[in-house]
Amino acid sequence: MTTVIDAVQELPDKELLSRHTQGDDRAFGELVRRHRERMWAVAIRVLGDSEEAADALQDAFLSAFRGAHRFRGEAQVSTWLHRIVINACHDRMRRKMVRPAVPTEDATLDVISNERTKASTPDPTGSSDSAMDVHAALGKLPEEQRLALVLVDMMGYRVDEAAEILEVAPGTVKSRCARGRARLLPYLAHLRNPEHSRDVTSPRGGDRAS
Amino acid sequence: MTSHVDAETLALSAEGLLEDDDESTVQQHVADCAACAAQRSELADVTRALAEVPAAPLPDSVAEQLEAAVRAETESRRAEGGGSGSGGSDGGSGDGSTAAGSGPPTPGLPPNVVPMRRRWINYLAVAAAAVVVVGGGTAVMRGFVSDPVDGRLAGPGDGASEHSAHKDAGLAYHPVVVESGTVYTEDRLTEQAGGVLRQSDPTTPDGAEGDAGGSAQEGRADSSEVPDDVSSCLQARANDSGRNPMLVDLAEYSSDGAPSPAWVMYYGSTPGSGEQDSYDVVVLSPDCGTGGGSAPVLAETAVPAP
Predict the structure, then answer these.
(1) Which residues on B lie below 8 Å from A53 (Cβ)?
(2) What is the ipTM of this complex?
(3) Is the pTM for the entire model greater than 0.80?
(4) pLDDT averaged over chain B?
(5) b/e map of A66-91 (b: 16 or more CB within 10 Å)?
(6) Among chain B residues, CA nearest to A144
(7) Other C-beta atoms within 10 Å of B197: how many?
(8) How far, in whole angstroms, is CA B192 from its chain's centroid?
């Protein structure tokens, strides 16, 4: 029995976190392996840039490692990790905002930064791929709307799950999503139909003057 | 026909967030208006477009970095002696990625991530920092901000061992706290922050070295008295982000000609290191730490280290 329980793969998240705080050196690594894909998916969607997302992910897991004793246990470990990842993303976005074209000693980062600048400008030719378009459009939203849309529309989380992660009321998540979608409308309409989606979706041709 | 419904109202309607009256008005209008009906369906398309964005899988290189990071942090914790209680069997983790007692304190990270690696090492040096701010009440918080000499966050060499002794007492984190008397403004924020940093460089031992002129001392004079609410603010922000400022300026901020109290946090670009490339400067209003959620940020900038 004991040997079975001792295999960290068998333990529930909360037990792993608890063991981690008690000094078990294997527990946290197992948590990382369990959650890293999902946390990556959040970070890459929020930040839209793999270098930034990798940074945020590492910041977040590091933060979780050190702050494990803060976990209260009333939430799921996964929910708690989501919060930490989102906070790490928030930090990244904030830094990017105050330092848009950060000069670094690392040439690759400069390239990435240039690419990011390019991506944030809508491409009038519509030739860039849709993921890029979506991210550029998301970048125009207030952060809270972006986060709500990432969780609900992109990740497919239920509103109450997103609400718990974001620590706001479900109604707040809904309204952030709604306002975010409305704002995205002009940017994303062409993704559904490069011509003019209104012509297609409306049986009467849509663009009736009024 | 009633006037058209804007996209936001349509979106709120779709979420059932409108009042009954408004909702029925919208419904009536959309029933008769092809343009609004089309726009409503486009809103659903937005959700679809978002859902269809393909998920890039976690790159192997990033997974490896994480493994290495956890391994390094584990090493660091073990070196501090705080985490030695696990004992027991070592037979569990199949791939051994966390338990492997390998490597020097400086982990071997992939070579393509230089900036992250540098940051990581520095995090090691202040591994105890985030731990700190949580447990203690205000008394502890007063303690942790009270010593500007040790406020210089530990360098890579001396950090872990020195601070581990304080870990349980919550004393590992010591920002430099000053009252510069600056009235920060949005336009001049970068310039002002640069000036305060030159006066009160948190990476220098006590600011008394004098090479920045006579003002270095006075800028630090008040560092022992830190209001409880500032401590709460620091605590809240550390809980949110895991970051702690190296320098806190209890000052004022003016957005409309009327200065009001503001706390200006200077986050070093390489926490834990004696050398900083730059600082993120965040101006917070004093209700930071009282409300839930993120702190009210009045202004932000980034400045190079002095």
Answers:
(1) 62
(2) 0.73
(3) no
(4) 67
(5) bbbebbeeebebbebbbbbbbbbbbb
(6) B294
(7) 25
(8) 21
